[in-house]
Amino acid sequence: MKVWILLTTCLAVQIGQCLSCLHRGVECIDYEVLNRHPEYEERQYPATVWISAKESGPSLSRAQINLYKKLFRYIQGDNLKGEFINSTTPTRTKVIPCKGDSLCEPTYIMSLLIPKDLYDDTFPIPTDVDLYFEREPPRRYVVRSFGGRPSESQWVTEAQKLADLTLKDLGVARDHYYLNWYDPPLQLFNRLNEVWITKSIKKKASEQKKFIRDQNDLNEVC
């Protein structure tokens, strides 16, 4: 019995070390809070890998429905290995608005985080040709968190608030932003939503070279 308790404890410690960020028992991304402001935070995120799909059109809600169906099928086994992939959070949508072009439609890129336990393995290749992997280097974001089940207009309002709050920060991007939800649709209360906007940081030459090598390796896999 003592041996079993010891093994169980060791396993729990190992899992905790590997997955120190959990949201309602689901793997999320570890990050460091660099600065806390009254209505937003500045965070540093580690390198991550995502499975993504994109769509252009006038409706954020419609694009999210279409793209989520594709991504959900992938983690449910619609890949060349036929493997089920553990759920992660957040579900992220990158929004690239139109600027000054009346014929342009916004572009939406929805992404699911690839679990850490697959980082040392070959990622299951999607059978849907519209899906692709994105390996991202460490990034810094300004982040605004809020609850509820936001409508399309509420998402845009929260993104605009964050843009206004960081208006004097020249490092904050102005050509895109990210919408993130952390909870499944059936979670009715205490929901967590976030808007992220990228903040540029200077990279060391060694870090940039490593990212390029990793990206080339990922392209070979895909």
UniProtKB/TrEMBL annotation:
InterPro entries: Reg_factor_effector_dom_sf, SOUL_heme-bd. Gene3D superfamilies: Regulatory factor, effector binding domain (3.20.80.10). Keywords: Signal. Residues 1-20 form the signal peptide. Pfam families: SOUL (PF04832). It comes from the Eukaryota. Belongs to the HEBP family. This is Heme-binding protein 1. It comes from Araneus ventricosus. The gene is hebp1.
